[in-house]
Amino acid sequence: MDHRPQAWGRPRDDVYGAYDHSYFQNTGPRQATQAPIVTGTSVIAIKYKDGVVMAADNLASYGSLARFPDVKRLRVFLDSSVIGFSGDVSDMQFLDRHLTELSIDEAYEDPSSDNKGHLNAANLHKYLQKFLYKRRNDFDPLWNQLLIAGFDGDAKPYLASVDLRGTSFTSPSLATGFGSALAQPIMRRYAATEEDAAKLTREQAVEVVKECMKVLYYRDARSLDRYSIAVVTKEGVELKEDEQLEKQSWAFAERIKGYGTQTV
Amino acid sequence: MAAMFSQNPLMNGPNYSFNDAPRTAAPEGARQHRFDPYTDNGGSTLAIAGADFTIMAGDTRLTSGYSINSRYHPKLFKIGGTTADQKDATIVLSVVGFAADGEALKERLDAICKMYRYRHGKPMSVKACAQRLSTILYQKRFFPYYVYAILGGLDEEGKGAVYSYDPVGSYEREQCRAGGAAASLIMPFLDNQVNFKNQYEPGSGVGHALQERERKPLTRSEGEILVKDAFDGAVERHIEVGDGLQMMVITKDGIEEILLPLKKD
Amino acid sequence: MFRNNYDNDSVTFSPQGRIFQVEYAAEAVKQGSVVVGIASKTHAVLVAIKRNAEELSSYQKKLFPIDEHVGIAIAGLTSDARVLSNFMKQQCLGHRLTYGRNMPVRTLVDMIGSKAQINTQHYGKRPYGVGLLVAGVDDHGPHLFEFQPSGMTEEMVAFAIGARSQMARTYLEKNLEAFADCGREELIRHGLKALKESLVQDRELTIDNTSVAIVGVEKQEDGTTKPQPFKVYDGQDVSAWIESVADNAEAAPAAAEGDGMDVDS
């Protein structure tokens, strides 16, 4: 027995090895995010003739554990844009606070009530791209991929993505994570080009997005059947945050073989 | 057993994991960063200088891994105009490699050209712009912009000028250059078709007697056809190249932009 | 000149509650030659009288572009104006880089306002000896702002600063109602007429001593508006406008309208 009270309850070096200072310290080199911890899965979005539809489920996973089943991952900005977050949830919450600050500043800069002259989705996307790119340059990345939906300076529907390295791009439909493999091919059937997207009605776009959310729930093990869906129009943002996946059919599951216990 | 009851762990008994216990050696070496700040977004670029024009070209596909992120993401940027729409620009920059670095590089060079115009009341020459671009790249020698840049315009005499760069700023003026994913596919084709490499006068003899085919600058339409052929070839053999071909032709009358379709598979 | 104990620095109030150094700086503005600015629903114009120190010297510039959507007219110390101008240029470039849009004019003016105010509250500093008229367009349309060395900024419909500017302001006040619906040519003529009011007896507007700058929004064919970049006109480019406000030209303004339009091309 070691009678020094400091030693009580401490792991012994001959059993566990010497204490590794790098895991818990207040001094020394600052630790940046090494990997995402609590994560959100895919966000998907598609443009249609007078706006953009975006959806993401309400789950935040801790590895393979469905840790927080009621986390809203779509965020409205200045009543005119929507941002969808996938990736690390704490970084999402940090960005959310930052965006709140930005929108307050923006409201002060331009106190007029006609909603003109505010940051639009294109401006917001540019800003977030700069923000995430700076953090990657500092080797302190925000572990997210974001979709930004709204309107650009010419009042045309706008949809763009930016990720943890600051890579940004636009497309008639976009999806992050698993969605880029599962949902994007489905959405591209309806909106392969900007011209195709400009022909879609709101109802069609919502239908496609719901279909994609269903496919994602079938095949993405880190997904949930409760989700948020946002429709951005010139009039503003309609956000529903507690939707339930409808008309699921798991009949296809019977035909899947080779993973489970079945013998034939 | 005696060691377990030792009052003096530092002598021979077991040590405990105190925060201040001296560490003999790093447990498994230095802890490594898992974050890789770079990706390759694929795509290819190409530039040909003519007698009184320059053609810049690039495909518009943006990939990450096997995914196509966007089918229309331009790699060609007009630089140094007075307004945001770059209507009166005379220089074109193409960037391929890591798209975010490419974007940052473009905006930096453009801002510098705008400040130059503000201070000196005249636009930057291609030569000056080319030198400045090299400095910008070299300033980040130890955390480079991961891009292969090509700068195109017309020189002081009105001749087509193409400057090509490596990611850390080495540069030279050339007749033509291909960059990016399919550079190794396109460049030999260009060597043969623009600089007439491995082409000889028929019947001029063998060995040292062989006469190289005389080099002469391409016409604009020949150049454009060459660019289209080069990209059709690259699309066929490289998965990261495709979707659209963006071409900018710089002449004394300004910059003409041409968009052509490429295979989307 | 008149002196007292309270004008050695800009941090000490006089017993009457005045800060003399700031008031003296305002006097410096009145030493500069006159500049006039007017805003309508679609345009903002700046017009200025340029001075040459002596017959043999060139004329001192009065109008400066800041960014594509905003520019300034200066009255007072030109070198102080350059510091502010450089600052504004940097801010506009930075804003464009981070947000991809024109900096709102009020935001920009507030920035130089805060910057100038600091100089009036810190020991050892000197207020800027220059007044500005800032003309620009943003999402809310055209704007005209006045800036004073005290850090005061205010949005104006029309204003004049500089030597003998009271005469110009009287003209502007008389015609105040007309400005809102003026087109670009009409607005310039109002500006030049106001400028003429401020001229000393035997001087008149010439192509050498007159500068004109315009910024505005233009209605597109599809009904949307597009900013028309800030542009400064000097020399021969302003001759048609000067002729159109010449004393003998008042009778036939319709003909002058046509002449003025040509300048724009």
Q: Which descriptors would you attach to this protein?
A:
heterotrimer, A: 264 residues, alpha+beta, 8-stranded antiparallel beta sheet, 5-stranded antiparallel beta sheet, 13 strands, B: 265 residues, 4 helices
Describe what is shown at a glance.
Chain A: Belongs to the peptidase T1B family. Chain A: Pfam families: Proteasome. The complex is a heterotrimer of chains A (264), B (265) and C (265). Chain A has helices at residues 13-16, 89-109, 121-137, 179-182, 184-190, 194-197, 202-219, 251-254; strands at residues 38-40, 43-48, 51-57, 60-62, 65-68, 74-77, 81-88, 144-151, 157-163, 168-170, 173-175, 226-233, 236-244.
Estimate the strand proportion of chain B.
25-35%
Largest β-sheet summary of chain C: 5 strands, antiparallel
Radius of gyration of chain C: 19 Å
Radius of gyration of chain B: 26 Å
Number of strand segments of chain C: 10
Summarize model confidence as the mean pLDDT of chain B.
91
Order of helices and strands of chain C: HEEEEHHEEEEHHHEEHH
Keywords (chain C): Cytoplasm, Nucleus, Proteasome
Domain Proteasome alpha-type subunits (chain C): 6-28
Subunit structure (chain C): The 26S proteasome consists of a 20S proteasome core and two 19S regulatory subunits.
Organism (chain C): Sordaria brevicollis
What does this structure look like?
The complex is a heterotrimer of chains A (264), B (265) and C (265). Chain A is an alpha+beta fold. Helices cover 30% and strands 28% of the residues of chain A. In chain A, the strands form 2 sheets. In chain A, strands 1, 4, 5, 6, 7, 8, 9 and 10 form an 8-stranded antiparallel β-sheet that branches. In chain A, a hairpin with a 5-residue loop joins strand 8 and strand 9 (157-163). Chain A is globular and about 75 Å long. Chain B has 4 helices and 12 strands. Chain B has a 5-stranded antiparallel β-sheet with strand order 10-1-2-11-12. Chain B has a 5-stranded antiparallel β-sheet with strand order 5-6-7-8-9, with helices on one face. In chain B, strands 3-4 form a two-stranded antiparallel sheet. The longest helix of chain B has 22 residues, at 99-120. The relative contact order of chain B is 0.18. The model of chain B is unreliable at 1-9 (pLDDT under 50). Chain C is of the alpha+beta class and 265 residues long. In chain C, the strands form 2 sheets. In chain C, strands 8-1-2-9-10 form a 5-stranded antiparallel β-sheet. In chain C, strands 3-4-5-6-7 form a 5-stranded antiparallel β-sheet. In chain C, helix 4 (165-174) crosses helix 6 (184-198). Chain C is globular and about 60 Å long. Chains A and B meet through helix 1, helix 3 and strand 10 of A and strand 4 and helix 1 of B.
